[in-house]
Amino acid sequence: MNSEVQDAYGQPLPGHFQRLTRTLNALGTLWIVALMLLINSDVLGRELLNAPVRGTTELVSLSIVGIVFLQLADTLVSGRMTRADVLLDRLKRTRPALAALLQAIFHAVGAALMGVILWAAWEPLVESIRIQEYVGALGDFTAPVWPVRLIMLVGMVATLITFVLLAWMDLRRMARLREARP
Asked: Is the N or C terminus of the chain more exposed, i.e. has fewer CB atoms within 10 Å?
C-alpha cells in the first residue's frame, strides 16, 4: 500500500505533537506499574502482616480514570481505538479519496465530541478545587480529587488536538489523491 493510500494512523503528527502523546502514554504506563506495586503491597500486607495499605481502593479508582485519559491521545494516533472499519477498508481499496474524506469527518466529529466533554469537565475541576473534594475517610485516608480531574483535562486537550491534526492530515491526503487521479 503506497503512502498516498495509507491513513493518518501511525504517521508522524505535525509539529512533533506525537512526542507529547507518547510522553503522556509513557506516564500512564509508569502509573500502571506504580499501581501494580501498590496493589501487590496491599495484598502482601493483608496476607502476611494483617495490615492492608490504607487508601489502596481509593487510589486505584482515581488512577484508572487518570490513566485512561493520559493514554487516550496516543491510542488514537496509533490507530488502536476500537472501530468497525469493514466499509472503510473496502473504500481505501476502491475509492481512497472518499475513504480519506470519511476519516476526516470521523476525526472532526471526534474533535467536536472531545470539545464538548472538555467543556463539561472544566466546571467539575474548578468546583473540586474550590470545595477541596477528596476520596477516602477523614481520620483514615484521604486523597484530593482535583489532580486527577486536571490530568483528565490534559488528556482531553491532547486528544482533541490529535483529532484535529488527524482530520487535517486526512483532508491533505484526500487532496493529494484527487490530484493524482487520472
From this structure: C
3 state DSSP class of 143 = strand
Question: Please, what's the largest Cα pairwise distance for the chain?
Answer: 75
Distance CA 148, CA 64 (A): 10
Q: How confident is the model at residue 5 (pLDDT cuts 50, 70, 90)?
A: low
User: Helix (H, G, I), strand (E, B), or coil: what is residue 37?
Assistant: helix
Interval 73-121: pLDDT, tens: 999 999 888 877 888 889 889 999 999 999 999 999 999 999 999 999 9
| Long-range contact set of residues 140-147: C-beta below 8 Å, sequence gap at least 24 | 140/54, 140/55, 141/54, 141/55, 141/58, 142/55, 143/55, 143/58, 143/59, 143/62, 145/62
Closest CA to 101 of 163, 159, 177: 177
Cβ(65)–Cβ(51) below 8 Å? no
Position of cell 474550590? 130
User: What is the dihedral sign for C-alpha 88, 116, 150, 41?
Assistant: negative
